[in-house]
Structure formats: structure tokens, C-alpha cells
């Protein structure tokens, strides 16, 4: 199983984003989702991105090379640790 670490751009609510937060993954053209909060937009984006990637695989397509470069092969039980700092 692979884990992908894809960069995300989060947009503030505006007329261009239907007055909602919009999150997108530039490496997956057209992969974007909206939400009333940044967390909701990210949660929705995770679902959309998973469907994008499943669709590629179900149709025998290769994921874009830029996406594959972000992949980590998961071996053994999943352990996740990440820290985000804002300075």
C-alpha cells in the first residue's frame, strides 16, 4: 500500500470560491473541494482526491509522475507522526 503526500492550496472564501473555503491539489488537475471551514474543505478534498486516484487505477491509467514521486510504500502497521509549526 502507498501513502501519498500531496501539496494543497487553500483559498479563503470569496466570490470566486462560492463564498466557501476551497482546497485544491494542483498535481491532480481539477481536484478541488469546498467547505464552510478549512477543516471541512480538507476533509472533502481527501475524499475527492481518493476518488480521483481510484479512477485513474480503475481505468488502467498511470498517476501523473509528480504524484507518484510523493508516494511512500507502507510496510507494517501504520504509524503517523507529524508536526505543523507556524512561526
Q: In words, what does this structure look like?
A:
This protein is α+β, with helices and mostly antiparallel strands and 87 residues long. It has a single domain (2-73), classed as Double Stranded RNA Binding Domain. It is 29% helix and 20% strand. It contains two helices and five strands. The protein has helices spanning 38-58, 65-68; strands at residues 2-4, 9-11, 21-24, 32-35, 71-73. Strands 2-3-4 form a three-stranded antiparallel sheet. Strands 1-5 form a two-stranded antiparallel sheet. A hairpin with a 7-residue loop joins strand 3 and strand 4 (32-35). The termini are far apart. The relative contact order is 0.19.
Helix and strand topology:
Blueprint: E1 2-4, E2 9-11, E3 21-24, E4 32-35, H1 38-58, H2 65-68, E5 71-73
Antiparallel strand pairs: 1-5, 2-3, 3-4
Instruction: Indicate how many domains the architecture comprises.
Output: 1
Corresponding CATH architecture? 2-Layer Sandwich
Q: If you average the pLDDT, what whole number results?
A: 87
Radius of gyration computed on alpha carbons: 15 Å
Unreliable spans: none
Report, as a whole number of angstroms, the end-to-end distance. 34 Å
Major sheet details: 3 strands, antiparallel
What is the CATH topology descriptor?
Double Stranded RNA Binding Domain
> By helix and strand content, what is the structural category?
alpha+beta
Amino acid at each position: 500500500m502507498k501513502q501519498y503526500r500531496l501539496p494543497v492550496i487553500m483559498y479563503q472564501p470569496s466570490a470566486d470560491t462560492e463564498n466557501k473555503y476551497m482546497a485544491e491539489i494542483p498535481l491532480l488537475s481539477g481536484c478541488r473541494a469546498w467547505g464552510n471551514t478549512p477543516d471541512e474543505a480538507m476533509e472533502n478534498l481527501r475524499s475527492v482526491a481518493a476518488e480521483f486516484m481510484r479512477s485513474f487505477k480503475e481505468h488502467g491509467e498511470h498517476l501523473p509522475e509528480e504524484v507518484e514521486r510523493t508516494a511512500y510504500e507502507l510496510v507494517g502497521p501504520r504509524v503517523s507522526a507529524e508536526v505543523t509549526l507556524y512561526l
